[in-house]
């Protein structure tokens, strides 16, 4: 799966949990999920659980520490799909 | 961990403590009771001359027993935490019957998941006739802070 293909699946997941005052157009690969997109910690967990379902993978606690922006999520997803 | 110890760790006090007793607790379920005192502050205004327990108070009671008590137990078992803190992050509760002053309710909660510090539970509240008065899901973020 290319990173573009992953992004195409990831974007609608993130969009679901955006707060009212953040536009979906602000989602790009360098967007910081909590600082720029304003996603709170509870919704960050929702996003991870949705990613697990869509990509059929499993995240561990230590993965959360590596997750800051959209690209971090794409890299983690790629690593898990290929392993 | 004893049930009394869990209640002692709750960060609430009168007039906002809505847990009297825990009946059972395990790492994926909890049940407990609370009696709404006739002279509780919210009956003075909800409603005028017609006291009925507000839905937000029922939700709070469900959250304190169903989410916070269970969360204290889970964090103690998994991480040895003795001083956890909580932030409610979401609720979806439907209400089916009124709860009047002086009624005793039982809250039953079943863990849906506890992952990445988020605890989500299916929670229901029964009155003394075992009628479901409220039911739904509550979730919150748990933080462990271990006292020295």
From TrEMBL, chain A:
Q: Which InterPro entries match?
A: ACP-like_sf, PP-bd_ACP
Protein's recorded name:
Phosphopantetheine-binding protein
> Where's the Carrier domain?
4-81
Q: Which domain of life is it from?
A: Bacteria
Which Pfam families does the UniProt entry name for this protein?
PP-binding
UniProtKB/TrEMBL annotation, chain B:
Which InterPro entries would you find in this protein's record?
A: FabA_FabZ, HotDog_dom_sf
Q: Does the keyword Lyase apply?
A: yes
The entry's keywords = Lyase
The name under which this protein is listed is: Hydroxymyristoyl-ACP dehydratase
